[in-house]
Amino acid sequence: MRELVLTGIKALNGGLFVVGFALLGETAVPKRFAGLFSAAPSIALANLTVIVIAKGHADAQRQATGMIVGALAMAVACAVGVVLVRRYRARRGSVALCGLWLGLAEVGYLWVLR
To answer: Which domain holds residue 27?
Structure first.
């Protein structure tokens, strides 16, 4: 039952953060910066807030480290993804990109988080 309540709090908290970041994104000039305030950072902050309250700083630190590893893997994969999509077109390049991201994230997870 406790996990269900925590999930509900995360959902409510995440929704509030998404709305807040969306409003912040609307004020961004130029509009291309609005993507910096998309849903992923707001959901991450909302979940980390709930984890700190419910489980403590140590769990939140592990979760944040995992988020950083995943974000770095995504950044590297996107840089390589431009080449993949140009070379193999959208479908095959995107599939290769997803595989690359998952592989990089797994290696990062095993290397950093063990």
So the answer is: 1-55
- Predicted local distance difference test score (pLDDT) of residue 39: 61
What letter would DSSP give residue 112? I
Are 37 and 5 found together in one domain? Answer: yes
CA angle 70, 16, 68 (to 5 degrees): 15
Cα–Cα dist 13/71, whole Å: 22
**pTM for the predicted model, two decimal places:** 0.69
Task: Using alpha carbons, select from 112, 21, 31 the residue that is nearest to residue 67.
Answer: 112
Are 44 and 76 part of one and the same domain? no
| Whole-number Å distance between alpha carbons of 108 and 114 | 9
